[in-house]
Amino acid sequence: MATHRRTRKPSELKPLKLNLSKVFNAEHMQRLNSIALLRRHWHDIVGNMMAERCEPVAIEPQADGSLGLLIAVNHPVIASHIRLLHEEIRKACFKRCKLQGLSKVWTRVQAGAGIREEKKVCIRHDIHCQDLRLLAQSLQDVKDKPLRRLMFQAGAAQLRYYKEV
C-alpha cells in the first residue's frame, strides 16, 4: 500500500509593509514610513556635520493634532543648536519629505546618535600600465609562478576598487 506524503505549498514572499499593516493601524504605519523617509534624507535636511551628530528617532502625535519630531543628539550643545534651528528643520522636512503637520521639534541626548554617511565603493576600469608595472616589479621576488600570478591578479583587483571620499 503506497502512502502519499503531503507536500507543503511553497511559501510566498510578501512585502514587509503588508504584514506590519496587520499589526499597526494606518496612522502608525504612516508615521513609520515618514521616519524612514526622514532618515533616508537626513543628510540633506540638516547637513553632513549635524547628521553625523543627531538623528530622527520618532514622530509623535501631539494633543492639538499636529506632529512632533524627536531627534536624538550625541551632545547637549547639538541639542541647543537643534532648538535654535527647529523652524528651518521643520521647513526642510516638509520640503524634502513632504512631512505635513510637523509643529514641534524636541531632542534627547543619546550616546552614539547620528547617521554616518557610507563611503561608496567605486570600480575603476582605467588602471594605468604604470601601476600594473609597479605591481609586477614588487612581485618579481616571488619564485612560485602560480602564486605570483594570483598575487598579481589580487593586486590588480585591489587597484580597481577604491573608497570614494
Structural notes for this entry:
This protein has 165 residues and is α+β, with helices and mostly antiparallel strands. The chain folds into two domains: 93 residues, 2-Layer Sandwich (GMP Synthetase, Chain A, domain 3), CATH 3.30.300; 43 residues, no CATH class. It has a three-stranded mixed beta sheet with strand order 1-2-3. It has a two-stranded antiparallel ribbon with strand order 4-5.
* CATH class membership of the largest domain: Alpha Beta
Low-confidence stretches: none
Tell me the strand order in the biggest sheet. 1-2-3
CATH topology of the largest domain: GMP Synthetase, Chain A, domain 3
| Computed Rg | 26 Å
- State the order of secondary-structure elements, H for helix, E for strand: HHHHEEHHEEHHE
A few lines on this structure:
The chain is an alpha+beta fold. It has 8 helices and 5 strands, in the order ααααββααββααβ.
